[in-house]
Amino acid sequence: MIPKDHPRYKSLIRRERIADAALKGIVAMEGVGAHGRGEAFDYLIGERTTQSALLAEKTAAALFLNAKNPVISVNGNTAALAAEEIAKLQRASGAAVEVNLFHRTEKRVRMITELLEDAGADVLKGESERLLPLSHDRALCLRDGIYSCDLILVPLEDGDRCEALVNMGKTVIAIDLNPLSRTAKTSSLPIVDELSRALANMTEFCTNLKKDEAEQLISDYNSRSFLESAVKDIVENLSNALD
Ligand SMILES: Nc1ncnc2c1ncn2[C@@H]1O[C@H](COP(=O)(O)OP(=O)(O)OP(=O)(O)O)[C@@H](O)[C@H]1O
Ligand SMILES: CC(C)(COP(=O)(O)O)[C@@H](O)C(=O)O
Ligand code: BAL
């Protein structure tokens, strides 16, 4: 039982969700480690959405609304932490949702699909094919889903797949607390923020963004500037950390 007045309540609740989901097999054991890595970076950026990340989330919403076939790719950690937020973003953006896993088993795909549907998401189903040029199971996807989309959101992504999707000409939006990861560096638009915060902000922007502002955001954005701002925020936080 985590008391609501605990100073790290939100972080502890997320950790409990990951632990519970790992025990059920929804989160891969390796995903527990990835979660810890994310938490460390959240500490470094101050456990808040920075101004730069908020602009990236607004830009991501503009790209979603401008896309013809947007897809939200969901792995075990994302489902465990943010199934409801994924469902809300789907409703606000009109995107399809597809499960895509690094440590893939058909049982995990079924459990994660069920978790997302229970949260109100409409999840693509069908016969996955090895359609991406990758040597691991993230290559497996749906022909009418990830394979044919023009824009894909990849929270907590694998850098190999991110690079392959970009090379296929897709707009790849990453959510990754580590601005130094391969995913953050190779994505079309890196959102350096915590998953649940980022999804909630994107949903809000998808709902309220005006067309002319969306067009301006799409024409102005520069992916590297978001990484530079994230690193600058981390350096600033570290230099004041012991004050
Ligand atoms: N809740 C979260 N919100 C945002 N990012 C997260 C969260 N949990 C973990 N991450 C980040 O997700 C990434 C996914 O984990 P993974 O093990 O694939 O990292 P990686 O192998 O370093 O990434 P890459 O393959 O891009 O180099 C990590 O960079 C981690 O910091
Ligand atoms: C470890 C993890 C972040 C989660 O594993 P899974 O749910 O099997 O995709 C994985 O996606 C990765 O790319 O590193
Ligand atoms: N992203 C999958 C394995 C790793 O790069 O950590």
UniProtKB/TrEMBL annotation:
Keyword DNA repair: no
Phylogenetic placement of the source organism: Archaea, Methanobacteriati, Methanobacteriota, Stenosarchaea group, Methanomicrobia
InterPro entries in UniProt: PPS/PS (IPR002855), PPS/PS_sf (IPR038138)
Any Pfam family the entry gives: PPS_PS
UniProt catalytic activity: (R)-4-phosphopantoate + beta-alanine + ATP = (R)-4'-phosphopantothenate + AMP + diphosphate + H(+)
GO function terms (MF aspect): acid-amino acid ligase activity; ATP binding
Main EC class the enzyme belongs to: ligase
Assigned EC number: 6.3.2.36
Family: Belongs to the archaeal phosphopantothenate synthetase family.
Record-listed ATP binding positions: 15, 37, 176-178, 182-183
Species this protein is from: Methanoplanus endosymbiosus
Protein name: 4-phosphopantoate--beta-alanine ligase
Superkingdom as given in the UniProt entry: Archaea
Oligomer status and interactors: Homodimer.
